[in-house]
Amino acid sequence: MMDREKLYIQMSEAVVKFEEERVAELAEKSLEMGLDPVETILHALSAGMLIVGDLFEKKEYFVPEILMCAEAMQAGLDILQARIPKGSTGNKGRIVIGTVFGDVHDIGKNIVKLMLEVGGYTVYDLGRDVPLEKFVEEVNRTNADIVAMSAMLTTTMMGMKKVIEMIRESNPRVRVMIGGAPVSAEVVKRFGADGYAKTAGTVLEEAEKLFKRIKQDV
Amino acid sequence: MSLNRVLRMFKEGRQEGPVCSSPLVMTTLEQMEHTGSYYPAALAEPEPMSMLASAAYTFLGFEGIRVPFDLCVEGEALGCKIRDGGQDSPPSVVERAFGEKESLHVPKNVFDKGRFPAVFKAVGMLKKRFGDEVTIYAGVAGPLTLLGYLYNAATVMRWPIKDPARMDENLNAAVVFILEYVRCLFGAGCDVLAVIDPSASGDLLSRKHFQRHMVPTYQRMRKEIGEPVVLHICGYTLDFLDLLPETGFEAFSFEGPKVQVRTAREKVGEKMLLVGNIPTYDVLLFGTPDQVREESLKALNEGIDLLAPSCGVPVQTPTANLKAMVKAIEEFRKERK
Q1: What domains can you pick out in chain B, each with its CATH number?
Q2: Phi-psi category of B190—alpha, beta or left, where left has phi over 0 and alpha has psi -120 to 50?
Q3: pLDDT greater than 90 at residue B26
């Protein structure tokens, strides 16, 4: 009989090595063992993706590898999530996410979304090429705490600034984080965003920081 | 007819430079106002397209004119669904043309379709009007970027690991199509081809995959294109800069501050022309003319050959900042004398 810790480690390793079938197999096994799927997501899948994020930062992994890891993780997530009662996850906070209007590059956004989901947040994904006012509408509809936006093109990035202005006007308590290849610390400052994750590897850290600030504000 | 300065650099080497000349898109709202040619008409009709493009030379003073203004022309004609970007942004591909398993199919008489005829006409008009004075660049989507549009980037980016043979097969098919397009562009009168391949960025691909898939792909293009070529890859490209001379292309355009000119020069050697690398947001959009001057002089002192923006500039970029690049090069030349 395998113990819990060992299974978590094997499963996170399988995510890192993008062994999709192995992840699925171990997810099934965790359920047979009676392990809490929420815990398994956190300690095996999320832990694995954090290692992947780290390898990306170190330039050992690139986008092809990350996509394969995300696919492997999704295989595990599908199995585990089916066994979780509604409302028992995603309690850490609500985040609206999307790639701004004119920009259809959503690889990064989708990875960030996955990181946030397994990190315990409820994520409302608006997809790509999202009309700017849609971000505000979705915040109002879901009562979200954070808006996360991404842009890949230098020609579309300005859209994020407009959304930030609209959010400040309508929902001043909401925090905004932005990302995407052309985003720099200077851009974050100029756009007036609250947070910035340079890569998907630091997204969870950044989101926690923002939620701490939201709590302090309250 | 004597060759203009930029063409002499492409044909005879860097000693003729440096110049201020951008193979990347530099259209701004202020240039639209100045020429009376606006998006979206300027994206699809030869007259406004050539008018707006020529502003880089007639209004800003750059030694080069580039058309078209977006990378979707090819994808559109091959079956991608396109969405218009309105007045202040170029169109974008919203739906891929082919399913993952489908092969790249080129429709008959494809170059009579979509915006191709407008692009050829605009190139011809520009050549006729300005060809004796400045270089006419035509921008095309590079093979990996084109595949990203046709099959969806997330699908394509899995191939290097999941199915390397499929990656090569599709890159080959993309090259066959691009070469056909390139022949038409040179036939229409373009001087220098700008191959824009942001998907091959080191932010996305490892050196290993770049070396294995992209270097041979670019070499295949080089073999068939006898005319000057500049390759543009934005983002972080440091990991494979040293491989670029192997492509055989005359020039490489890259992005600052992610890649510094000095480092790029060390890695690619003296033979390749370096193009770039003034940051589009931090300097050109948000900065002052003084900051642009400073960044430009730094790039020139470190050995840039074609002073240009790092990437396509946002349409809100102020004219004064773009003109500051031209002034910087005049200052640099005076000091050198």
Answers
A1: 5-336 (3.20.20.210)
A2: beta
A3: yes
